[in-house]
């Protein structure tokens, strides 16, 4: 149980004290699974209090890419997501292989999941999905002039249905709460802005 400390100092935000990092006293692996390694940290807070059971998923770094075709449509994946138990729309994304460049991973995921490639890939931003409990980052890219190769991989663990959506249709999905995967949602907003849409 964590204790909340209430203060009455509601003056200027510039008067807030500096936020200091926690000191890690010890760390160990609580769950050493290939796809879900979890470490257990004993940390000391700036107040001096010790928390001996702070768990962090050592999550992979992810590359997410927004493919945009020459005729002005977004290439979107529909995939089943077991964590929430339903099909969800998202852009091609996946974990970086060991020593893999994020852009190379993004290009690879786009081709594997959708069968599209592009010679015009740009970096959009980097985001942390849940930095309280996850260590990995999401590297976000956009691919203009995406074109189909006619070949995509079929992964039985991640079957993918590919959809082509106009900017207006993508915005409708977002506003209707049907485009919910966090890194894809952030990437969509960056891409729409970059495209002036």
Residue-averaged pLDDT, rounded? 92
Q: Which strand-content bin applies to the residues?
A: 35-45%
The CATH top-level class label of the largest domain: Alpha Beta
Q: Major sheet, described briefly?
A: 5 strands, mixed
Q: Find the CATH topology of the largest domain.
A: Nucleoside Triphosphate Pyrophosphohydrolase
- Regions with pLDDT < 50 over 5+ consecutive residues? none
Architecture (CATH level 2) name of the largest domain: Alpha-Beta Complex
Question: Radius of gyration, Cα only, in angstroms?
Answer: 20 Å
* Number of discrete domains: 2
CATH superfamily of the largest domain: Nucleoside Triphosphate Pyrophosphohydrolase
Query: Approximately how much helix is present in the residues?
Result: 10-25%
Distance between the termini: 46 Å
Helix segment count? 3
> Given the helix and strand composition, which structural class is it?
alpha+beta
Give the topology string: H per helix, E per strand: EEEEEEEHEEEEHH
Count of distinct strands: 11
Shape estimate: globular
Describe this structure in words.
The strands form 3 sheets. Strands 4, 7, 8, 9 and 10 form a 5-stranded mixed beta sheet that branches. Strands 1-2-3 form a 3-stranded antiparallel beta sheet, with no helix packed on it. A 3-stranded antiparallel beta sheet has the order 6-5-11. It is built from 3 helices and 11 strands. Strand 1 (23-32) and strand 2 form a beta hairpin. The protein has helices at 102-114, 167-175, 182-194; strands at residues 23-32, 37-44, 50-57, 62-69, 74-81, 86-90, 93-95, 116-117, 120-127, 138-148, 160-165. The N and C termini lie far apart (46 Å). It folds into 2 domains: 17-57, no CATH class; 62-194, Nucleoside Triphosphate Pyrophosphohydrolase, CATH 3.90.79.10. The longest helix is centred in the middle third of the chain and has 13 residues, at 102-114. It has 197 residues and is an alpha+beta fold.
């Amino acid at each position: 149980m964590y204790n909340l400390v209430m203060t009455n100092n509601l003056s200027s935000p510039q008067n807030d004290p500096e936020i200091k990092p926690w000191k890690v006293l010890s760390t160990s692996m609580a769950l050493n699974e290939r796809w879900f390694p979890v470490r257990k940290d004993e940390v000391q807070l700036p107040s001096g209090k010790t928390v001996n059971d702070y768990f962090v998923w050592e999550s992979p770094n992810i590359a997410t890419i927004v493919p945009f075709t020459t005729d002005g449509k977004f290439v979107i994946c529909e995939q089943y997501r077991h964590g929430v138990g339903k099909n969800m729309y998202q852009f091609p994304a996946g974990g970086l292989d060991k020593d893999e460049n994020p852009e190379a991973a993004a290009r690879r995921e786009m081709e594997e999941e959708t069968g599209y490639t592009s010679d015009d890939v740009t970096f959009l931003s980097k985001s942390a999905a849940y930095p309280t409990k996850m260590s990995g980052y999401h590297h976000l890219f956009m691919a203009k002039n995406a074109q189909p190769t006619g070949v995509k991989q079929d992964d039985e663990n991640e079957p993918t249905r590919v959809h082509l959506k106009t900017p207006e249709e993508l915005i409708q999905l977002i506003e209707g709460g049907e485009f919910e995967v966090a890194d894809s949602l952030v990437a969509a907003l960056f891409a729409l802005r970059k495209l002036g849409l």
